[in-house]
Amino acid sequence: MGTGQRNQEAHVPDTTTGTAGATSRAASAPRTLAEALRARPDDSLAALLRIRPDLLSPVPGDLTQLATRAGTRASVVRALERLDTFALQTAQALAVAPDPAPYDTVRSLLAGDDGDPAVEDALPGAVVALREQALLWGGDDRLRLVRTARELLAPSPTHPSATGLGPTVAEATAGMSPGRVQEILKAAGLPATHDPVSAVAALTSLFTDRARMAALLDSAPSEALTVLDRLVWGPPYGEVSADPPPPVRWLRDHGLLLPASPRTLVLPREVALHLRAGRAHRAPGPVPPAVVPLREYRPQVVDAAGAGQAFTALSTVEDLLAEWNEGGPAVLRAGGLSVRDLKRTATALDATEPVAAFWLELAYAAGLLATDGEADERYAPTPEYDDWLELPPAERWGRLAVAWLAATRTSGLVGDQDTKGRTLSALGPELDRSPAPEVRHRVLALLATLPEATAPDPESLLARLRWERPARSGPDDLRSRLAQWALSEAELLGVTGRGALTTHGRTLLAPASGALELDALGHLAAHALDPHLPEPVDHVLLQADLTAVAPGPLRRPLAAMLGVLADIESKGGATVYRFTPGSVRRALDAGQTATDLQAFLTEHSRTPVPQPLSYLIDDVARRHGHLRVGVASAYVRCDDESMLGEILADKRSQPLRLRRLAPTVLATTAEPAVLLDGLRSMGYAPAAESAEGDVLITRADARRTPRRTPPVPVPDGPPLPDETLLGAAVRAIRAGDTAATVVRKEPEAARTDGSLPRTSPAETLATVQAAAMTGSAVWIGYVNAEGTASQRVIAPVRVEGGFVTAYDHTADEVRTYPLHRITGVAELADDPA
Q1: 50 in a structural domain
Q2: pLDDT one-digit tens code per residue, 21-72
Q3: E strands along 297-424, which residues?
Q4: Same domain flag for 579 and 456
Q5: CATH number assigned to the domain comprising residue 816
Q6: How far is CA 213 from its chain centroid?
Q7: How far apart are CA 508 and CA 606, in angstroms?
Q8: Distance (Å, rounded) from C-alpha 767 to C-alpha 781?
Q9: pLDDT beyond 70 at 18
Q10: 312 pLDDT exceeds 80?
Q11: Does 437 lie in the same domain as 317?
Q12: In this structure, are 414 and 561 located in the same domain?
């Protein structure tokens, strides 16, 4: 939890004085983490479970179980990973401080001997954050770090601490001979002692006494001080030869360096802290680094730039899936897209390969693209793509935006290698990174903290993210890479414009946890974007050079038909389409006639249909279908015998291996599709026909996958609990704790070994009847139908017919128990609260 989010409660020191006050504090101080949790109010327990949701799976039976689970290694590591820099530094200071440590000791370790106002102001909030997460417990006079956290953060030879501190004098001299310890005392000018314990205490007292330590260092050779300077900020270990140089020998003889192994010396913690002026860290980070504004724009400029890029994003996704409308590339055996197919896709989109991978992953995350699941598995658009095309542009963008925000698949990893040295491919496995959604959301949130329409300095934003989660910054600093990708992807998608957060991008910061909330978020973003998108037009401008100019985004039916009839030549503020014999033939193959095409162009053009275009349509239509291709393996039939003779005489037809079966029929062993392509490359316009002799109509949207579910994001740990679950969990934990800790009166017949009480049926009946009349609670031993024995605290409400109906404090609900299954009953010394 970052400093920006946590409650900055002021530190109020304990001002109780005198013997009575000390006695009162000792009596009320918690002895264990479980006792500290037991003293918390319900809202504080709920806050703990909200911050650390892994503690809820399953719901602990009581507060002792909760405390035990909060101290497990996996849970503590997860909690430490979510600390900001200063909270983690505070925990690291506690790990090198005595256990327990007074508040002033921790403050001294962080602020140093000279003090640091920023550290002193931020420390109370860091202590509160550690307490809220149950990593720290105890009063300010006895702060205790959870043992597992201390083991993880304390320095050791195999696990160097982030503080760079080494072991204490007591730890470093644990295996040293008593005689060697006395020699060190003598060299340091200290009197000899009668035992090693007092000798170590005397040496520790010397190293922690600022005045005496300064005098000892003043007598050291200057070369020895240079050696100390190299070790003071860590690592504190150094290798030496069998005959070390005089400066190192002087430091070893005076105990300023102690042996850690036959060839290694270590700088004791107390010596390092003196040299550091008491600081545990070289650079404490009490204040988060600010996100620095880089450039400020007018809001209209940012929104217009973002809207323009949003429209480009829609066009790019449409172009990508239109390219794969009749079936895309094959799926690799290991899953994903081959490098060659990714390059082809990038060329078709006129983009770089990383950008093409981003669009592919975005379409996949939005459920618009999937594998068809057939034997020869290929990628293809899904039926949801057709539904998506029918939406208004702003709604389509909203779907893409929320899919991007929630996706854990990370296109930036494409081209990297996994742990086994295999290259990660687009649309392939191993691309999920759980922190990605949280990092994207945090990047947008930090952009939102700047003045409106202000672009940040990217380096300052990355520095802020590293401060908020320092423990998660591994060797490759995944969070920084995710943040850099988030910035570039947000610009590609139009969430930002010129680096600044847009108005419609700001709407994506609303909280959303489920599918319904994400849909609502998409509608909200679409509503904010819609005023900034250009209005679709319903006309084009036909030109004499066989081109058509679309002066803006075209309405969906017009764009779909024109995309079949013509090829896109260029894009920009206006899209240029070019009519070619191939494009006109494509429209005829889709079932259109020359008359239909002429009427379509006349209706949607603001300029007259040019004569060259009319001639082109009529000429292609006149030749279209004159040849017929069917299955023989394949055949060509034509009423014009001379045309078939012309084909046979053409050298370009030799690869097709055609032979004449009849005056009007040619046959070949080639597949019909190969034959069609071959004849078209020779300049003819054949049409495919069915077994019945009918012309086959081919449409661009012929290939679709079965309905697919979009990829489910991989969660970064357990889901966040809602308020209802938190309230029920806290009640259940409190009830179980009451049952586990309640004081009971043992009847004479009760056993003293802690097992179930034993009372006669008459005594059991009398006791529960009395409890029902007085409204008090009792402790029972109970064996269920499966033979499982348990101990429960119940408040009987009604006793009749051999059953007792009672409120079960252990289960926190009303239950009915058969009296014959109650093995015994005991009154409570005090009723549970």
Answers
A1: no
A2: 433 444 467 889 999 999 999 999 999 999 999 998 888 888 988 999 999 9
A3: 369-371, 379-381
A4: no
A5: 2.30.30.100
A6: 49
A7: 40
A8: 13
A9: no
A10: yes
A11: yes
A12: no
Rounded to the nearest 10 degrees, how much is the dihedral formed by the CA atoms of 152, 157, 161, 165? 130
Exposure b/e, 401-431, CB count within 10 A at least 16 = b: bbbbbbbbbbbbbbeeeeeeeeebbbbbebb
Which residues are within 8 A (CB) of 370 and not within 5 positions of it... i.e. 6 or more apart? 364, 379, 380, 382, 705, 708
Nearest to 820, CA basis, from 792, 781, 776, 774: 781
- Phi, psi at residue 338, to the nearest 5°? -70, 160
Final residue in a domain of this structure, among 602, 623, 644: 623
Buried b (16+ CB within 10 A) or exposed e, 203-216: bbebbeeeeebeeb
Q: What is the dihedral angle through the alpha carbons of 441, 443, 447, 453, rounded to the nearest 10 degrees?
A: -90
The token pair that represents 447 in the structure block: 């952009």
DSSP string for residues in 144-200: EE-HHHHHHHS--SSS--TT-----HHHHTTTS-HHHHHHHHHHTTPPP-SSHHHHH
Helix, strand and coil content of the chain, in percent to the nearest 5, comes to 50, 15, 40
Order of strands across the sheet that contains 789-800: 813-818, 803-808, 789-800, 778-783, 822-827
- For residues 81-99, give the mean pLDDT: 93
Q: Is 595 exposed, middle or buried (0-12, 13-18, 19+ CB in 10 A)?
A: exposed
Using a 10 angstrom Cβ sphere, with 0-12 exposed, 13-18 middle and 19 or more buried, the burial of residue 617 is: buried
Q: Report d(CA 578, CA 586) in Å as an integer.
A: 13
Taking alpha carbons only, the member of 701, 648, 656, 654 closest to residue 674 is 656
Amino acid code (one letter) for 57:
S
> What are 227's two structure tokens?
């050696």
The CA–CA distances, whole Å, from 448 to 23, 292, 451, 456, 468 equal 52, 12, 8, 10, 17
Q: How far is CA 436 from CA 415, 439, 680, 710, in A?
A: 18, 5, 49, 17
261-264 contact pairs (CB < 8 A, 24+): 263/239, 264/237, 264/238, 264/239, 264/240
**Three-class SS state of 778:** strand
Residue with tokens 């620095």: 292
Same domain, 477 and 553: no
CA neighbor of 622 nearest in space, from 614, 634, 610: 614
Tokens in use for 233?
């900020």
∠621-625-629 over CA atoms, to 5°? Answer: 155
Peptide bond into 534 cis (omega under 30): no
Q: Look at residues 64, 76, 88, 77 and name the one whose alpha carbon lies nearest to residue 6.
A: 88
Measured CA to CA, the distance from residue 353 to residue 112 in angstroms comes to 52
At 345 the pLDDT is 93
Q: What is the pLDDT of residue 9?
A: 36
DSSP assigned state of 677: H
Query: Does 313 fall in a domain?
Result: yes
pLDDT score, position 512: 58
DSSP state letter for 636: E
Please tell me which of 371-375, 555-559, 570-574, 600-604 the model is most confident about, judged by mean pLDDT: 600-604
Specify the pTM. Answer: 0.76
Is the backbone peptide bond immediately before 124 cis, with ω within 30 degrees of 0? Answer: no
Q: pLDDT at residue 831 above 50?
A: no
Q: Is residue 46 part of a domain?
A: no
Residue 129 backbone phi and psi in degrees, to 5: -60, -40
Q: Which domain range does residue 793 map to?
A: 742-827
Residue 63 structure tokens: 């507060």
- Whole-angstrom distance, CA of residue 178 vs CA of residue 424: 59
Conformation bin of residue 278: beta by default, left when phi > 0, alpha when psi is -120 to 50 = left
Q: Which DSSP letter does residue 263 get?
A: T
How far is residue 500's CA from residue 393's CA, in Å, rounded to a whole number? Answer: 22
Q: What crossing angle do the helices spanning 103-111 and 117-132 adopt, rounded to 10°?
A: 130
How high is the pLDDT of residue 555?
A: 82
Residues 456 and 322 in one domain: yes
- State the helix-helix crossing angle for 85-96 and 103-111, rounded to 10 degrees: 120
Strands (E), 434-519: 454-456, 496-497, 500-501
